[in-house]
Model the fold of this input.
Amino acid sequence: MKIIKEIIVGTHNSGKFKEICDLLPKSIKKYSPKDFNIPSPEEKGLTFEENSKIKAAYFSKKSNLVCLSDDSGLEINLLKGEPGIYSSRWAGKKKDFNLAISKVYKKMSECKKNWNIYNKARFVCSLTIYWTSGEYFTVSGYVSGNISKTKKGENGFGYDPIFIPEGYDQTFGELDKKIKMSIDHRFNAYNKLKHYFTQL
Done:
């Protein structure tokens, strides 16, 4: 494989874009789909891995660049894995995660009134690196934890304010960014393919 000098990070989500760019070496030039006016593809996959590959292939072909694309979401045990691959779609067309979080609490309350005892969950991230030759590599990372009783913290994005990772008593929305970035699902996935970006 050739040394990667520039890459398109395949997401329109500004929070994801920043987190992925922060994981990548500073020497690599990063582009957003917005730089090329490339819209998002339709995500027809049934798994995080499938949707990650769909996006990576699409953005790579549209930009003629190596692409690193993410598909990620929250799986809640009590809700049998929901919202899962529909995590972003629960936020509606306006990507209002206050709406999505309200839906989580409503559904959990409908399942069990004392849902805070049954609040196990995990974040999942699938990352795909896709080369212009059509070769690709997909990995997944996870972080387990619990759903908090209330929304807490202003850091992060998405469901971060209601997710407490195992071993901590603060949500991702409250934790320092450097701590979150060293334990979360995206970091754990990236560690499995970072060798592609650290060639000498």
